[in-house]
């Protein structure tokens, strides 16, 4: 069966977007607000009609992720910002594989995410209450699967509990995209052997988007 590289690229961009948000938060204490909202919202629809539906049915919602994906695929650096993004992206994929093999964790994850809906009736998506709840899900369900993702950044920034919650919520969103990536036929071998195909696809999607100002 032929792989659908459009869907695979969208889900991969979702992982990369989460990785980039984690990096921004860890270094600056803030991040691209619209991209964060898209990533956090992706956690809520567990039965989407399509891959794009997970990201609000708009390719532009993944602009940051698509640009990050191209940077990761083009990067050969072993240190610096590019290497950090690659490490986060690959670490999220490793954790997703561990999650996929642990039925109890999968069930608990679905149960905890379904509870977010009740809280969202009273709180905004990016409120401390919701990001704190998402961070709690990450700590309780994903972290114990190991190995833990080492987030690097400004020590002063990373001591802030609100930033910590947003980082963990973004990592949880990255896991969501990694699950989706596997579901649509993604696999780590593609990162080695189909880089050009993924780059072409990402470039094509980005070329359709109106310029960002």
Describe this structure in words.
With 213 residues, this protein is mostly helical. It is built from ten helices and no strands. Helix 1 (5-28) crosses helix 4 (80-100). The chain starts with a helix and ends in a 5-residue tail after the last helix. 38% of the residues are buried.
Produce a short descriptive summary.
This protein is mainly α and 213 residues long. It has ten helices and no strands. The termini are far apart.
Straight-line N-to-C gap: 40 Å
Tell me the series of helices and strands, N- to C-terminal: HHHHHHHHHH
Give the % helix. Answer: 55-70%
The major pleated sheet works out as: none
What structural category do the secondary elements indicate? mainly alpha
Arithmetic mean of pLDDT: 94
- Residue share in β-strands: under 5%
Question: What is the CA-atom radius of gyration, in angstroms?
Answer: 16 Å
Which parts are unreliable, with pLDDT below 50 for 5 consecutive residues or more? Answer: none
Put simply, the count of helices is 10
Which shape, going by the Cα principal axes? globular
Number of strands: 0
Fold blueprint:
Blueprint: H1 5-28, H2 33-41, H3 63-74, H4 80-100, H5 103-120, H6 128-142, H7 155-158, H8 161-183, H9 188-193, H10 195-208
List keywords for this structure.
about 210 residues, mainly alpha
